[in-house]
Amino acid sequence: MPTPFESAQLNLQLFDLRREAVLREARNWFLLEFNPETFAELVAIVSGPRNSAFRMVVGYWDMAASLVTTGAIDADAFRAAHGEIFATFSKIHPFLSELRTASGEGDICEHMEKVVLAVPGAEGMLSRRREALRVAAKALAAEKTRASS
Question: Which one-letter DSSP state was computed for residue 104?
């Protein structure tokens, strides 16, 4: 079990990684614009130019969560410091089974899943986050349309 100081150090290092420009842009796209409502829509989006952004965001959060599942970071400290993982996972959670089957990667996002679903009431929270992000994305799109008119 890591000490609180060790967990804090690793959490700060993970936060530092998130500041990298390409990852920051990919995370912004993922949270604001990536809102698939069906698995087919997810496949269409990630089969296009945003494939690398999708892989970068999902890969980053699964790698970060692996530090929890392997015991390098305390789970509660991680979840307290990185709430964005819940929003990120909420977007892929409904399609995870299909994504694993279609990709042939049965363990894709396994670490994220373990870390997020360990929270009591996680399923409901994920649903609420997903819907809130969809509403925010629609409002942002409407604002962009008004501004360009």
Answer: T
**Structure tokens that stand for 149 in this block:** 């008119």
CA distance 139 to 32: 10
Report CA 50 to chain centroid distance, whole Å: 15
Cβ within 8 Å of residue 41, ≥6 positions away: none
For residue 125, give the DSSP letter: H
Domain count, the chain: 1
Query: What type of residue sits at position 120?
Result: P
pLDDT tens for 52-91 read 999 999 999 999 999 999 999 999 999 999 999 999 999 9
Residue range(s) defining the domain that contains residue 134? 4-148
**Pair 93, 27: CB distance under 8 Å:** no
Entry pTM: 0.91
